[in-house]
Amino acid sequence: MPIYEYACPDCGAQNEHMQKLADAPIAACPTCGSQKYFKKISAAGFALKGTGWYATDFKGGGSKPAETKKEADAKPAESPAAAPACGAGACAACTTD
């Protein structure tokens, strides 16, 4: 069951209430009885613990798994890198004066 935060602008009370998703919002402040009691918008808090997907896939930045033979056979052959354009400074002709 989610925990919702509520606030009352009249008395300044701030409370947390555990409610079902289908429950109607609480209309009256339990402290002063004001009808201006409203549900605040807040971020959900959760923790990824244990040996689940988070710990094994993203935590610690481990290395990639080795490629299987089927994956290697399925990849197209890589073409050699194209030669740089003249004047790029990559060949002897461009670097000698």
Walkthrough of the structure:
The protein has helices at 53-57, 69-74, 92-95; strands at residues 3-7, 14-18, 38-39. By secondary structure, the chain is of the alpha+beta class. It has a domain at 1-42: Single Sheet (Rubrerythrin, domain 2). A three-stranded antiparallel beta sheet has the order 2-1-3, with no helix packed on it. Strand 1 (3-7) and strand 2 form a beta hairpin. It is elongated, with a radius of gyration of 31 Å.
Overall structural class, as computed from helix and strand content, comes to: alpha+beta
Write the element-wise H/E pattern from the N-terminal end onward: EEEHHH
Poorly predicted segments: none
Shape label: elongated
- How far is the N terminus from the C terminus? 77 Å
Using the 3D structure, state the CATH architecture of the domain at 1-42: Single Sheet
Helix-strand blueprint:
Elements (H helix, E strand, L loop, with lengths): L2 E5 L6 E5 L19 E2 L13 H5 L11 H6 L17 H4 L2
Antiparallel strand pairs: 1-2, 1-3
Please describe the structure with a list of short key phrases separated by commas or semicolons.
Rubrerythrin, domain 2; 3-stranded antiparallel sheet
Task: Describe this structure in a few short sentences.
With 97 residues, this protein is α+β, with helices and mostly antiparallel strands.
